[in-house]
Amino acid sequence: MGVPEVLQPPLSLRILAAYRRFIRWLTSARVLLALILLVMMVYLILVPLYRMVETTVTYQERDVLAVPDAVPGQLTAYHWVRMLASRVSRVFLYAPLQHSLVVATGATLLAMFIGSVLAWLVIRTDMPGRHLVNNLATIPYIMPSWTIAMAWKVMFNTRVAGGTPGLLEYLIGRPIPTWLAYGPIPIIISSALHYYTFFFLFVSAALMSIDSNLEDAAELAGASRSRILRRITFPLVLPALLSGFIMTFSKVMGTFGGPNVLGTPVRYYVIATMIRSSVAIGEFADGFVLAIVLILFTIVTIYINQRLIGTRKSYETIGGRGFVAHVARLGPWRKVLAAGVIVFQVLVIALPLGLLAYDTFMLHPGNYSLSNFTLHYWIGKSDINIANGTPGVLRNPKIYSSAWNSIRLSLATAFFTALLGVILGYAIVKGRGTRLSKLVEQISFIPYVIPGIAFGAVYISMFSKRVGPIPPLYGTFALLVIVSVAKHIPYSARSGVSAMLQVGRELEEAGQMAGANLWQRFKRIIFPLTSAGFVSGFLLTFITTMRELSLIILLVTPATQVLSSQTMRYTENGDTQMANAVILILITLVLIGNFIIGRFRGGSLKKGLGM
Amino acid sequence: MGTTITIKNLTKRFGDVVAVNNVSLAIEAGTFLTLLGPSGCGKTTLLRCVAGLEDPDEGEIYIGDRLVFSRARGISVPAGQRDIGLVFQNYALWPHMTVYKNMSFALEIRKLPKAEIDKRVKESLAEVKMLGYENRYPREMSGGQQQRIALARMLAYRPKVFLMDEPLSNLDARLRMDMRAELKRLHYVAGATTIYVTHDQVEALTMSSLIAVMKDGVLQQVDTPDRVYRCPSNLFVADFIGNPKVNLLEGVVDGQGCVDLGEFKVAMDTQGVEGKVVLAIRPEDIAVYTEPTPGTVKFTVYSVLPSGADSTIVARTGEREVTIRVPGISPIKMDDSVWLKFDPQVINLYDGATGNLVAVRKV
Amino acid sequence: MKTLVKVLSACMLVVLIAGCAAPAATPTPTPKPAPTTAPGQPTQPPSPTPEPTLTPDEQWLKAAELGKFAPAKQDWAAIEAAAKKEGKVIVYANSSRIEKAAAMFMEKYPEITVEGYDLGGDDAVIKVREEQKAGAYVGDVWFSGGGPDIFGDLLPKGYLIPFVPDDLLDVIPPEARNPLVVARYGVRVLGYNTELNPNGCPITNWWQLTEPEWKGKVFIEDPLTDASTMGILTTIASHAEELAAAYRERYGKDPVLDPDTPDAGWLWVKRFAQNSPVPEPGGDEVVEAFATPGMKEAGVGFTSYSKYRDTVKGKLVFDACKGVKPVMGVQTQAYLAVINRASHPNAAKLFIRFVLNEGFEPWNVIGDYSARTDVPAPKGAIPREELNVWTQDDAYVYANIAKMRDFWAMNLLQ
Fold first, then answer.
1. Is residue C24 part of a domain?
2. What is the pLDDT of residue A589?
3. Which of B73, B95, B106 sits opposite A13 (nearest CB)?
4. Count of CA atoms in the C-beta half-sphere (13 A) of C121
5. Which of A373, A581, B106, B280 has the fewest C-beta atoms under 10 angstroms from its C-beta?
6. Which residues does chain A have within 8 Å of residue B88's beta carbon, measured at their own beta carbons?
7. What contacts B320, CB < 8 A, 6 or more positions away?
C-alpha cells in the first residue's frame, strides 16, 4: 500500500529555512571565529604576500633607470626574467640559493643529531646530571642567533679576513684552515648549535610519551636493542623529528645574521644576504623575487619531507602522566659522558656570552691584557673621545628607553599572539575535518616560510596609508606589534591547537548544555583550561620577540627603538663594545622574563612549541 | 514533571555513513526510554541530536509542544535553551572548578540569586548522597563519586528531560548495580522524561519503562522491556536481548504441521509461513527432565555452569547445541543425558529469510 | 548550500585581497621644479605668484615662508620667537653625535625641546619617504646623507625643502648649498697599516689594487649590504678620465677596455672585483682587519677617515694614503634641510642655523669637515684644501647604482 507523498513545503518556506540554517552555521562558535581569523589572516598574511608578488610582476619607479620606457605599475616579467634567466641570476639567485640550501640542510641535520642524542641521553638513560642538561638545553635559543657566530669569529679568526688572529690560532700558534673559520662549515655548525634546542624539546617530548610496553613487547619477541631502536622507537619519534625539521629548516633558510658574519669575508653569500642587499638599495622587486623563491623552496622541502616520513605535521599531545620508561644503563662511561655533555653545553652558552662580556670590558678591541680593562662602556660618563660621546650603557637613558620598548613590544606581542593562539586552536580543533578549519590551519602556516626581512619590507608600505578605519600606522608602536604577531601566527596556532586538544570536546559541550554562550564558555571553561598553553605561547613569543631584529629593523623608528635595533645602530657606528653590552642586557632581560613567566601556571617553552 | 518528546523522521549522516536512519519516536511524559544497541548503531548520535549538540540532516524534534528542531523550517534551538540535561559518559566535570562551582555554573548563567543556588546545590548533592563534597575537586574523587556529581550537576537546574549517555559504563560491576538502582529512583522521584543510552541489555531491561533497540541507525523495536524480552520483533533483537542468549534453532517447515530441525522436530502452527524458519526459545523456557519423557528430545550435557541462584547448562544432540537455565544448583553433571521439552507455547517463530517475527508465543 | 557558501567566501576573499592590496592613490604633492644642480648657480629668487587656490603643501610653504614663499631677507628675531612658541623640533640624523648637538641646542634655547634621532643612512630615506606618502608628517629636520636618493627621489617629490641661513651665504660656497646645504663632509680614504709600513703607504696608484700582489689583501665594507659603499664604487666608476690617466702613468699605455666595460672607470671596478677584495660586514671590521696593532701581515682598506681618531687614542695603527693616484678617496656629504610639512618649521630653521654655527662642535673632529670656508679642520687632520678627493656625483650614483650592484656582484663572484 502506498505511503502518501510528503508534500514539499512551499518555496518561500524552503528559502527561509535555508537562510536560517546559513545564519546558524555562520554564527556557530567555530565558524564565526574561523571567519574572523580568516579575515585577519588574509590581511596580515595573504595581502602582504600578494603585495610581494604584485611588486615582482609590475614595473617599479626605480626600474625607469634600467628600462627607460618602463611605465611604473604596468605588468611585466622583467623582474622574474632578470632574477631567473639573466646574467645576474647566478650570482644573485642560484649560487646563494644553493648556499642557503646547503647551510639549511646541514644545520638542520646537525641540530637534529645533537638534539636527538641529548634528548635520548636525558630521557632514556641513567646519565648523571640529566636535570641540569635538560635546563641548559633551552638556553641557546634565548641568545640571538648571531652571537654564536660572533663568538666563533673571535675563536677562529684567521688571516683571510684580516685582523688579529683568533683565540685558537693564538693558542696553537699556527694558522687554522680557512674552511674552518669562514664559509659554510662554520655557518652550519654555529646555526646547529643555536637551533638544536628545537630538536631537543620535540624529541624529548616524543620519547617521554612512548609507552615502554611497546618496546617491551618487542624485546620479549626477541628483537635486539638496535632493532627495537630502529623499528619501534624511531618511527614513533618521526613526527617530532619532522616538526623540528620544518621549524629549523625554514628559520635557517631565512637567517641573515650568522652568514653575514661568517660568510661575507669569503664571499659566501646566502639568499637572505641578497634579499637584504636588494632592500638596502631600494630594489624591492629584486628582493621580493628572491624571497618568493626562498619561500617556494622551503615549502617544497617541507613537502618532500612530509611525504618521505608520511606523517601529518600536527601530532598528538602527550598524556603527561609521567610514567617511567625503560632506562638504558650506560655503564662505566656514564660520568665521562655526563661531563662531556655538560661541558659541551656550557661551552655553547658560556663561551659566546663570556667573549661578549669580556669584550665589553676592553677599552681597545683585540687587546686582551688586563691594562685594557675598563668599565666605561657600562657606567662611564660621556666622553667625546670614546664611542662618540655615548655614555656607558647603564648611564644612557636611551638604553633604558630602548629596553623598555623592547619589553613593551615583547609583552604586547606575546599577549596578543597567545590570545590569538587560543582562538586559532579553538577554531581549528573544533572544526577538525571541515574545509574551513583546514583553510585556517594552512594559512596560519604560511608565515613560517616567509623570511622576516621580506615580511618587514612589505609591511612598511602596506601600512603607510589609511585603510578604512585604520589610520596609517607607519612609525607607530602598534605596527611593530602587528607585524610581530603576524610573524608568530604559526607558533601560536601550533601551541593553541595543542592546548585545545587537551581540552576534551565534552567539557565544552557540558558548558553548552548548561546554557553558556560562546563568551561564557571561553571565559569560564576554555581559557582556564588552556592557560598553561597560553602562558607557554606567551613565553615563547616573548623570547623570540625580544631578540627579533630582521623583522622589525625596517619598521623601527626613533620613538620605538628597541634593544635589538639599538645594537645594530651601535655596531654600524663601530661601537662594538656598546653593542655587546646591549646584547648582554637583552639576554639578561630574556632570562629574567623566562624565569618569571615560567612560574605562572606551569607554562614552559616546551608547551609553547606545542608539546 | 516531565514532558513529551516527539522525534519525527530523524536522519543524520556523517559523510557517506548514515548514523541515524529515518527514526521516529513518540515518548510520553515521565518515560524512562533506553536506546539500546551495539556500538555504532546510532544511539549516541540520536541522543546528541535531541540534546542539540548535533544538527540532524532531516526530521523534526519536539520537546513538549515546542519545536526545537526542524530541518524543513530551518529551526534549531541551541542546546542550552532546550531545558534538558545531559550526563556524559566521561562525566565531563570541569577539572578546574570545585564540585560546588561545577554545579552552580548553570544556575549562575540563569542568573539565579545566590541563596537559591546554594539551596539547589545542597539539595542535588543530597539526592545523590554526596553532601559535604562541595569544595572538592574532581581529581580528588573516585569514578563513582564523579559520576554522582555529574548527575547532581544535571539535577541542579531541574531540567524537564534527562539525557544520559552510557553513564555507568566506566564503573566497575558492583558500583554499576548500585548506581542503577539510584538512577531509577532519581528518575522516579523527579518524574522527568529520560532518554538513556546503553549497550548493556541488562541495564536496559532493569531500568527502563520503554526500550528502543537500534541497529545501523534503524529502529528495530520499541516496546516495554517485557515485550522486548518475550516477543522480540526480529532475530537481531532476539539475539541481542537476554543473558544467557536465546536459543535460535534453524529449521524448515515440513508441511505437516512441524518444523523440521534435522535432529528432531517440533510441532507448531507456522501461521502459513513456508520454507526456512528459525525457532527462538529462552533458556529458562526449556523444561529439563532427567528421565525419558514423552514429547521430549534426548540431549547430552556438554557443560554445567552453576552460579548461585541458578545454573546454566549447555546440552547437545547431533549438531545442535542449546542453553538451558534451571533454578538453584543443579545436580546434573557433564555427559549426563537429559530430556528437553520444546513447548510451542513459549516458542517464537521467525521467518528464515527476513528474520522477522512470524508467530509469537502464546504464553 | 555548502557550495554556495564556498563560492561566496571565495569571492569575499578575492575582493578583500584586491581591495586591501591595491595601493591607494598616493597623495603626491605637485613636484616642485627641481633647482639646477650645476655648481655656481644661485637659487631662484622667490616670486610668489598669487594663486586662486593653494594645495595643502603650498599652504604650508606659505605659512613657513619656505620654498617659493621664502622672503627676501630672513627675520631671525621673528623666526626665533616663532620657534620658541613651537617648543619642539624633531631631527632625523645619521650620526650618534646628534645627542650632543641636541643637548647644546637645548642649553641655548631652553624653551625648545630637541628630539634627535640617529638613523642609519638608508633608513632615513625610507623613513621620510614613507612618512610623506602616509601623510604622517613627523620629522622636522633632515640632517643625514643619502645623496643619491635625495636627488633622485626625495627632492623631485618635494619631500625636502632647501633652507640656507642667509647670513652664511658668503661662507658657504654655492656648490655646498645647491640644492641643499651641506652639513658636513666626510671622507672615505684608502688606508694602510702604519706599524707595518713605517715608510708610508705602500700604495701609490689605485691600479696596484688590481694586481696579484694585493690579491686578497684589500678590505672594504661589503657593498652588497651597505648602500653607501656601493655608492662610493659607483662614484669611482664615474671618473673614467682620471683613472685612465693613472693607468697610463703606471703601465705606460692606454687601458684596454673589455666588452662589458664602457670606460676606464668601470674597468677599474671590474679588475678590482676580480682581485678578491675581502668584504667585511661592517666598517669597524674593515679597519680592524688591516690596522690593528700587533698584526703580522699587511693589508689596506677603504674606510672612513674618521677612524684616524682611534689612531690618536692608540687603538689603531692607521693612516690615509695621502699621495696615492688618482685621489685619496671619495667625499661624502650629510645635508641639512627642512622636511616637507614639518610641524615645527621655525624651530627647524633655528636648528639648522645652530648646527651650521656653534652646533657643529661635536663634528669638529678628525674625519669630519665643515662646509664653511671659515672653519678650519681640527688639529692633526689633513686640511680640506689638501684633500685630494672626488665628490660623490649624486645624480650619476642614483642612475647607476643598481647597474653597479649587478656589475660588482658578477665580477666578484665569478
1. no
2. 78
3. B73
4. 21
5. A373
6. 506, 509-510
7. B249, B261, B262, B263, B264, B299
Question: Which chain A residue is nearest to residue C9, measuring alpha carbons?
Answer: A35
Pairing, β C278-280 against β C318-320: unpaired
For residue A236, how many other CB atoms are within 10 A of its CB? 15
pLDDT at residue C19 tops 50: no
Query: Is the same domain home to B260 and B226?
Result: no
In a domain, C48, yes or no: no
ipTM of the complex: 0.83
Average pLDDT over residues C60-77: 84
- Quote the domain boundaries for residue B259: 245-359
* Per-residue confidence band for A321, with pLDDT thresholds at 50, 70 and 90: very low
Of A313-322, C63-72, C356-365, the range with the lowest mean pLDDT is A313-322
C-alpha cell at A221: 619477541
Q: Strand B297-306 and strand B265-267: pairing?
A: unpaired
Q: Return the residue in A54, A266, A464 with the most chain C beta carbons within 10 A, the one to mutate for interface testing.
A: A464
Choose the closest CB to C117 out of A21, A274, A558.
Answer: A558
Please determine, for residue A318, whether its predicted confidence score (pLDDT) is greater than 50: no
C19: region left, alpha or beta (phi > 0 left; psi from -120 to 50 alpha):
alpha
- What pTM value is reported for the model? 0.74
Q: Do B213 and B171 sit in the same domain of this protein?
A: yes
Q: What is the CATH number of the domain that holds B94?
A: 3.40.50.300
Residues with pLDDT less than 70, chain B:
1
C115 and C245: one domain?
no
Q: Do A525 and B109 touch (CB under 8 A)?
A: no
Q: Which residues of B touch A20 (CB under 8 A)?
A: 73-75
Summarize pLDDT for C157-205 with one digit per residue, the tens.
889 999 888 888 888 888 888 888 888 888 888 988 888 888 888 888 9
Q: Which residues contact C186 (CB under 8 A, 6 or more apart)?
A: C304, C305, C306, C331, C332, C333, C334, C367, C368, C369
What residue ranges define each of the domains in chain A, with the CATH number in brackets?
A: 29-44+396-611 (1.10.3720.10), 77-320 (1.10.3720.10)
Q: How many domains does chain B have?
A: 2
B51 contact A CB<8A = yes
C-alpha span between A466 and A471 (Å, rounded): 5
Q: Evaluate whether residue C32 is within a structural domain.
A: no
More confident residue, B132 or A321: B132
What residues of A are in contact with residue C138 (Cβ under 8 Å)? 475
Instruction: Give, in order, the Cα–Cα distances in Å from A181 to each of A160, A347, C223.
Output: 9, 18, 22
Contacts with A19 from chain B: Cβ below 8 Å: 74
Task: Identify the band that residue C10 occupies on the pLDDT scale cut at 50, 70 and 90.
Answer: low
Each residue's pLDDT tens digit, A192-203: 988 888 888 778
Final residue in a domain of this structure, among B238, B254, B280: B238
Closest CA to C111 of C78, C87, C76, C86: C87
Counting as contact any 3 or more CB pairs under 8 A, the partners of A are B, C
At C31 the pLDDT is 36
Domain that holds residue C236: 186-331+395-413
Please check whether residue A272 is in contact with residue A295, taking contact to mean a CB–CB distance below 8 angstroms: no
pLDDT higher than threshold 90 for residue A253: no
Q: What single letter denotes the amino acid at residue C165?
A: P
> Is residue C167 situated within a structural domain?
yes
Which pLDDT value is given to residue A478? 80
- Distance CA(C108)–CA(C102), nearest Å, equals 10
Considering the domain architecture, whether residues B89 and B188 belong to the same structural domain is answered as yes
Q: What is the CATH number of the domain that holds B351?
A: 2.40.50.140
Residue B61 and residue B157 in one domain: yes
Which chain B residue shows the shortest CA-CA distance from A528?
A: B96
Contact (CB, 8 A) for C356 and C179: no
Are residues B144 and B168 in contact, defined by beta-carbon separation less than 8 angstroms? no
Let me know whether B249 and B231 are in one domain: no
